[in-house]
Amino acid sequence: MNSIYKGYQIKTTLLIGIILTIMRCDATPKSPNIIIFFTDDQGYQDVGCFGSPLIKTPNLDQMARNGIRFTDFYSASPVCSPSRAALLTGCYPPRVGVPEVLWPNSQTGLEQKETTIADMLKQQGYATACIGKWHLGDQPNHLPTAQGFDQYFGIPFSNDMSVNPNSKVAKHIIFNEEMTIDSLREKKWRGSKVPLMRQDEVVEYPVNQTNLTESYTTEAIQFIKENKNHSFFLYLAHSMPHIPLHPSANFKGKSARGLYGDVIEELDWSMGQILKTLDELDLAENTLVIFTSDNGPWNLENGHGGSALPLRGYKFQTYEGGMREPMIAQWKGKIPASTVCSEIASTIDLFPTIAELTGASMPKTIIDGKNIWPLLSGQKKAKSPHEAYYYYHKTSLQAVRKGNWKLRIVEENIELFNLKDDISESKNIASQHPEKVKQLKQLIDQYDKELSANVR
Length: 456
Ligand code: MG
Description:
alpha/beta, Arylsulfatase, C-terminal domain, 12-stranded mixed beta sheet, binds magnesium ion
């Protein structure tokens, strides 16, 4: 009796085991979707949960409550093109040959031989889309469609620029503001009249900029819906709040922070739409969403620039305000809710982190970024993988941060700050700490020497 019962019990346990194994196989999730939501020239303070006194960002604030907020997250350049090159390749910008801002019809750009996050994920069978501002070269071999993206929809450079007169033009191109094919082909600078592109063709010239945030959002949602059963990578690089500022009619005049606030509040709406779509399609538990910006805010007297307070400096500078960015990440079920991380991390870390998460193999070339999944996933006691972080502007290595110490050397002017006591870089304490200056200067010299010898 007893042994029969035992036999029955073993069979039942076996059966349950087999069923569970089958269920697990069935439920094996596809590789995680990746969304990078990248804004242009948004200040460190210009998000509710980063301390904005006037701008309302309920969706980004909710995202931070769902996930993690990084207080010491850096872009890899205080200007657009290099910052984007770094994000997509995991390298400091001079290493990949994009140290400076690119202009329309530039003959240079991000070289095809570089591996972008999109190239890497395409190898893994991902659907890939770039929606928004590109700014890594507008020649056919530099455009997103040549850099691993299946789809491209957006403006090829900053919204204050002009047009490449040699652009490929779509058959049914829409012309606005009395422009014609002849005016597009004319070699004349028309500031802030920029083209809208689909794949490698201009589909509208000049684009009506008040529609940009909304049309990017619509396009992004459509891409997510089309790929709900397929792993995808969405690089949504909004054109705003780069000047000239253009909110849509729904947001114009609504924010207490004026036109700049209107634009940020519309970007927040856009993020809300993306997150809502993920929830509706039941994708939030299989999607890593990252929000950050490419560089610090403009320093403008008309209020059209943002705020990096309490940080010092602006766009174009290697003070904290030029490169430290608000960063929020959400992945429901994987990133613990309401986490804050104050370790040093950067946009260059996203490439190796995404490689780790998707099982993709890293390129054989030097990659400066590091896997920050231990930080992102809120592991207790996880430390920054960077021994030091380097601040490049153009080709010059102007500053280094190690722990809380930051050394900045511009035109032989040496500044040392302790960011823990002095987040605003207001007290230059170089003369009190000559040993520290020497140590950090050595790091700068070493890194710059290595990088200069290995520019690709
Ligand atoms: Mg920018």
